[in-house]
Write a structure and sequence with these properties.
Elements lengths: L7 H18 L4 H23 L4 H22 L13 H26 L1 H29 L23 H28 L3 H36 L1
């Protein structure tokens, strides 16, 4: 069903359109460069998440061969064990020692087998967490671009200091600027969700939830600023 899964291509097209909107309104701003980076990231992460959702056949075949060889080896060793020695006088103790060693070997073999079987999951998890870490950094960069866009600083009577940032945007432009930041945060959250969709891994899902919560909280802060702008414009019109 088309509306039950996220489409990486549509997310990428949404990021491209947002970058064009930023370029048309703020062609010389660094926010446009962040938008370009988000477009590049949407393409790379989209392909990466789709790849991680597919099985690593070479690894599975390798594990299957190793397991088969181990099974053959244990079967071959088992042919040397004679249970008739258990009833022979003076041989029972030696047989028990040998059986204990065999059990210990089987336990360690089982641990090694589980390690091999879970290797694919651990490799994909490491790769996904690395990509999600890069996405988290981009989210913080987006937040840095809206950090100094404070609508309260543009109110009459507030005199800028020597270290105050330049405020050249009109209230309408500032509102659009903040809205673009909010949209970029939303797209970043959807890119993270692609990994939760591709991998049924609790660690990856938890990392995705953290990123989405971070993007949502930062977006909420931005919308508080937008509400202040709308309130000030309403007060001026009244």
């Amino acid at each position: 069903m088309p509306y039950r899964t996220l489409d990486r291509a549509k997310i990428s097209r949404t990021a491209e359109r947002l970058e064009r909107r930023i370029a048309e309104r703020f062609p010389h701003s660094s926010l446009r460069e962040v938008g370009q980076e988000l477009v590049s990231l949407s393409e790379d992460l989209g392909v990466d998440a789709q790849t991680l959702g597919q099985p690593l056949m070479w690894l599975r075949l390798t594990v299957a061969v190793i397991v088969a060889l181990a099974a053959v080896m244990f079967a071959f060793v088992g042919t040397f064990l004679s249970f008739d020695r258990l009833l022979a006088p003076g041989e029972a103790f030696d047989f028990v020692q040998g059986l204990e060693a065999a059990i210990n070997t089987a336990v360690f073999a089982g641990i090694g087998l589980w390690t091999l079987i879970s290797l694919e999951e651990r490799l994909k998890r490491r790769r996904a967490l690395k990509s999600l870490h890069a996405l988290r950094s981009v989210i913080h960069i987006i937040d840095m671009h809206q950090l100094t866009k404070d609508p309260a600083a543009s109110r009459p009577g507030i005199m800028p200091t020597a270290s105050s940032p330049r405020r050249v945007l009109t209230p309408g432009e500032l509102e659009r600027y903040l809205d673009y930041c909010s949209e970029m945060l939303s797209i970043a959250g959807k890119l993270a969700a692609l990994y939760a969709q591709a991998l049924n891994d609790s660690v990856v899902v938890e990392a995705v939830n953290d990123i989405e919560a971070l993007a949502t909280n930062l977006s909420r802060k931005i919308w508080q600023k937008i509400m202040l702008i709308s309130r000030d414009e309403t007060a001026v019109a009244a």
